[in-house]
Amino acid sequence: MKKIIFLIMLGLSCHGFGQTDEEMLKQIYKSALLEGKSYDWLKTLSVDIGGRLSGSLNAERAVNWGKAELDELGLDKVWLQPVMVPKWVRGAKEFAYIKASSGETTNVNICALGGSVATNPLGVTANVVEVKNFEALKALGEAGLKGKIVFYNRPMQADLINTFEAYGGCVDQRYMGAVEAAKYGAAGVIVRSMTLNIDNLPHAGSMTYGELPVSKRIPSAAISTKDANLLSSMLNLDSSLQFYFKQNCKQLDDVKSYNVIGEITGSQYPNDYIIVGGHLDSWDLGDGSHDDGAGIVQSMEVLRLFKLLKIKPKHSIRVVMFMNEENGLRGAKAYAKAATEKGETHVMSLESDSGGFTPRGFSFDCTDATFNKVLSWKPLFKPYLIHYFEKGGTGADVGPLKTSTNATAGLRPDSQRYFDHHHAANDTFDAVNKRELELGAASMAALVYLFDTHGL
Fold first, then answer.
1. DSSP one-letter code for 116
2. Where, residue-wise, is CATH 3.40.630.10 in the chain?
3. Average pLDDT for residues 263-289, to the nearest whole number?
4. Averaged over 37-64, what is the pLDDT?
5. What is the pLDDT, as a whole number, of residue 9?
6. Residues 145-164 as b or e (16 or more Cβ within 10 Å = b)
7. 3-class DSSP assignment, residue 88
């Protein structure tokens, strides 16, 4: 009998000292808000290191910083996982203007899209054809497009409350715009920035040439929404106007980088893993605070809170700082490949890659039975105004880990302001609210705690 009592007490002491779920969540939120580290971490990552384009010196500095910080937490394991990543460099700042028939020019704001080729050294000057979609492009054909600059001007759909749905509805023109326009002999591509805001900030992002030979690749750039509206209105008045742009980007050979991984080994199921993560790389126009510095530091904070509150998880809990989400997803693919080769079981994988805004809840990709269990936890989150629990997409980096039986999840902050900053020069530390960031970290830690405690 004494042995049974001892084992029961041991189980309680190893997982929250016998506290109820409600009491443990209260401790998690209290600790994150009163003595959190996520905001200070983000300041270092964003301000001291800055934008972290894959393959860059800053990305390398971020890897070294991340490993050092995880080492400081006293985790059971910390290591770097090698991954080869693309190295694309922007070069000197881009320049562009609209030239009316009168000869008058108006400077506009553009940025080269990630993966684009440069213009020739003197730049590209050509007439402009405005289109909303690839169907319109096809209708114009080579006769209407050869030697011209294609201007994709389909805006994000403003009446969609889910701004990620609005983003998904127009991002194809950025990603596939150049390869489609090149089929008809276009000289270049200008794409309306992916944001609902009307401002002077061009938004970067990845694009592809598919299997297009290097000799047929055309330069592709994003134009700010304010200048896109200007260009469109000027075209309505003067269809013969010309557009000039010059960009100096270059694609170099792949280089070695790393995923940064830290682990608290599980007390009962050490070979079953729950992971939290975000992507360490970012675009280079801002410092990547919302995309995805916030997700990185929130994920780190989950493990720090477990250590601080002396929660000894049943499953092994990992934080993964994925490299190269923005222009290749190489880090996620390398992590999933290694997990498969090692026969690792990933019970649940949680990603934060939607900014550091006020958390609203989570999206889940899981079985109906698991989702019903998740819904039973919803009352525990009510005091923290976390109400969004829906099945749906979760995150690019955890996607490769999904199986028919496990769960993936994504933190869902309020998204209304996210695309004001996404991939733009104003994605900076001063745009992140300390309390909102900490609430997101606490919500992630709470969800991980419940999955660890109760399983799928």
1. P
2. 17-86+253-454
3. 98
4. 98
5. 42
6. beebbbbbbbbbeeeeeebb
7. strand
State the helix-helix crossing angle for 294-308 and 57-72, rounded to 10 degrees: 10
Per-residue CA distances from 248 to 107, 120, 203, 327 (Å): 18, 8, 17, 18
What CA–CA distance (Å, rounded) separates 184 from 140? 9
pLDDT single digits (tens) 404-414: 999 999 999 99
Question: pLDDT tens, 310-351?
Answer: 999 999 999 999 999 999 999 999 999 999 999 999 999 999
Task: CATH 3.50.30.30 in the chain: give the residue spans.
Answer: 91-248
What one-letter code names the amino acid at 22? E
Alpha helices in 272-321 (DSSP H): 294-308
> What one-character DSSP code corresponds to residue 114?
B
Quickly state the pLDDT bin for 17 (edges 50, 70, 90): low
CATH code for residues 91-248: 3.50.30.30
Q: What are 112-165's pLDDT values in tens digits?
A: 999 999 999 999 999 999 999 999 999 999 999 999 999 999 999 999 999 999
| Residue whose tokens read 């009962």 | 268
Q: Which long-range contacts (CB under 8 A, 24 or more apart) does 33-38 make?
A: 33/435, 33/438, 33/439, 33/442, 35/308, 36/301, 36/438, 36/441, 36/442, 37/297, 37/300, 37/301, 37/304, 38/297, 38/298, 38/300, 38/301, 38/437, 38/438, 38/441
Using CA atoms, how far apart are residues 271 and 316, in angstroms rounded to an integer? Answer: 7
Chain segment 130-139, per-residue pLDDT in tens: 999 999 999 9
CATH T-level topology, domain 17-86+253-454: Aminopeptidase (3.40.630)
Give CA separation, 128 vs 150, 189, 190, 245, 432, in Å: 6, 9, 9, 12, 38
Which DSSP category does 431 fall into? G
**SS3 (DSSP) at 122:** coil
Contact by Cβ (8 Å): 421, 433: no
298: amino acid identity, one letter: Q
